[in-house]
Amino acid sequence: MPMGEKQVAQNGPRHRLWSLSDSEECAKDEEESGLKKHLTPLERLTMNMCHDEKTLKELLVGRRVGFYQVRGQIGSGSFSKVKLAFHALTKDKVAIKILDKLRLDAQSLRMLSREISSMETLQHPNVVRLYEVMETPCRMYLVLEYAGGGDLYTRISTQGRLTDAFCKIVFAQILSAIKHMHENNVIHRDLKAENVLFTGEACIKVADLGFSTRVKNRSDILDTFCGSPPYAAPELFRDDNYMGPPVDIWAMGVLLFFMSTGTMPFRAETLNKLRRCILDGSYSIPTWVSAPCQRLIRGILRRDPSERCALDQMLGCEWLLPVEMFRPRAPLQMNPMALVEADPESLLEEEEEVKARLEELGITMDHITNNQGKGSRCAITGVYRILIHRAQKSRGAERLPVIRGVVKDPKRDSLRAYRSLRHTSKFCVIA
Ligand code: ATP
Ligand code: MG
Hints:
Elements lengths: L4 H7 L10 H16 L3 H11 L1 H9 L2 E2 L2 E9 L3 E8 L5 E8 L5 H16 L8 E6 L3 E7 L6 H8 L4 H20 L2 E2 L8 E3 L5 E3 L6 E2 L6 E2 L11 H5 L3 E2 H18 L9 H10 L10 H10 L10 H5 L7 E2 L12 H5 L7 H13 L3 H6 L8 H16 L7 E3 L7 H11 L6 E2 L1
Helix pairs in contact: 1-3, 3-4, 7-9, 9-11, 14-16
The site of magnesium ion has 4 residues, from loops.
């Protein structure tokens, strides 16, 4: 019996064994509404999910999935539809990636389980979070942090290339996200502008870990060709196998080129010509790109993976020198059992806040214990992760990188970009 249903069965309406007169019906309705008033939000929700006609209908037609009220479609990919949804208890907005299992072959199912496992490993302000996983016989639902500001590809296609200063802010976040992935032995393998989402004017989240893989060591050899051809490193076309980190780094170089110029470094009408272009490594950077940025692009887009700029070298490069990276705080436990197992005295501020909020919603430590071991496939984990993330954000856990001092770009557009940045309050430029 699903959690909460037991209490509902005890308190809620029972099957009618005999018929009631009007006054008896009335009294019963009053009794039920009185009872409802005393239910916790969790009990009310689970009761509605079992007995309320409207809720049941919504569950049937897909307007509700688990504890989420599903709204319109906000995106789609080769394997999925992504819909906006609200958590019925916390009211937070989330994105639900819905995959039709019947359309996925064995390879795609393996990739899906890697996507989940990679996301479970990561907790970073610039990587989309996974809150919960739900499964029915036909579908998989990944409940994700909502990034409602559109994707980087659309932004550049509609508004043109990014100013040098804005480019730094965005690239610094991508760099921080990929560094976190590689430090946790996760290789993204599909880094591209379409998979960089905005949550605000300048805050980005790297999304879509559908082609990602977890390695034991960063030097492990991989042999699956995946990703988007314009972002593919030469070794993917040239060799039978490759190392993961340099492939992500190459894609970062293509992305940096695209952000700073609004065009792609390697373009061709056919895949074969594109492959030739990438293998030749021939591209030219417009002269108006600042010299330090040009040097970084050249340092990354090297045909030999062993010569490619490493992430730590990028962090110290001249172009990113004025950027003060935001150092994320230590990750918090993503499993609600942390609240049960920890000594109450040793709970962090965020955890205490979440524990209190869970109790208000009617989620007790017993509920958590009874559902342990289910990981992300548990509605309580979903609530817990949403609340923990909210508590982290309210304590400034997702601050943007800051540009300190005058941006030292010799090229003419940089000063203009810097001036325009000073007047946006969305991110901070300290002179
Ligand atoms: P593909 O492999 O073709 O890139 P996919 O099936 O793996 O696609 P995603 O890239 O994860 O799917 O998502 C498809 C689209 O849905 C994204 O391009 C984006 O527009 C939207 N989307 C995905 N995740 C989110 C999110 N967390 N918040 C808001 N929108 C999202
Ligand atoms: Mg995608």
